[in-house]
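Much of what follows relies on a compact textual record of a protein's fold. The record below shows the convention in full:
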Amino acid sequence: MSEPSEPPPVAEGPGPDSTPTENSPIRLTEEGRIHYEMELQGLSNEKIALIQTLNSDRTFALVASGAIWSWFGTNSPEEINPWLIWLPAILTALFVVKTFWTHKSIGMIAKYVQDLERQIGLPETVGWERWLGKNKPNKSFNYLFWSVLLGGNLLVGIWMHCSFLPSTALESCCSPS
């Protein structure tokens, strides 16, 4: 039986005891280039899926909130469990947390790709993630969307509680002292 052979090197450059820098980028072998192209393609696909998830979550949160409020609007106050009026706000808050962590995941992928672009010696002016890192996209729409949806759900919940459900366990917050 033959001894297992070591895999071919994927890069040449500084030894294992040193870290590549801007001044000493690694030089990829053909196998290494193929490996990193496949890795970058996989990371790109993962980012696309995460971005699609963000878009779907916004749509679902908006539709779910509207559907819940519509159901409340078609039922008499006696039929509604008073704690359910907080369901749209709770659901929205959970989506806000999920959105935060999804953005963190996207940022981690972007940072890894930036580091990889730097290590393989791409010039500073080349590479989408490096360009994007210097030209941050405006996230105002996300903040505005989630703030309005969460704030609106909270306000409608408070209004419903105080207007239609005065005999609930939460009565003390609405009655004048």
User: Anything to note?
Assistant: Helices lie at 30-73, 87-119, 128-134, 140-164. Confidence is low (pLDDT under 50) at residues 14-18. DSSP finds four helices and two strands in the chain.
